[in-house]
Amino acid sequence: MAQPLPDCPIALVVEDDAAIRDLATAVLEETDLDVIACDSAEAAISVLERSGGHVALLFADVRLGGGMDGIDLATAVGRRWPDVRVVLTSGGDARGAGRIPSRAVYMQKPWRALDVLVQAEHATVAARAA
Fold this sequence. Notes:
Helix 1 (18-28) links the parallel strand 1 and strand 2 (34-38). The chain has a five-stranded parallel sheet, sandwiched between helices. It has helices at 18-28, 41-50, 70-80, 113-129; strands at residues 10-14, 34-38, 55-61, 85-90, 105-108. Helix content is 38%, strand content 21%. It contains four helices and five strands; from the N terminus they run βαβαβαββα. It is globular. The chain has 130 residues and is an alpha/beta fold.
């Protein structure tokens, strides 16, 4: 079911592990950003296409189920929505880190909530300045 999009800046959480997605969502709900959670890159692209430029932060896992992984998603977002702050995370060995776009922030799992909140603050400040 499609979620209605809020009028204030959005944090988009993309994680296929429900427990980690719920944790990231709970952390980001403590910010000034509205939070939308997705379980795939394809679902995230759909939200981005409907958002009208409201997405300020993309917080995504490198490894996702489906046709696109988090790195593919970050690359697509960088091309189509360059103002979105992109944070990629991974609990793996980060071999894919060499493919991570230069403008994306990389956080190794387990990440600290404080580090996520700092990235959210950067995204909020940038969205308000735009």
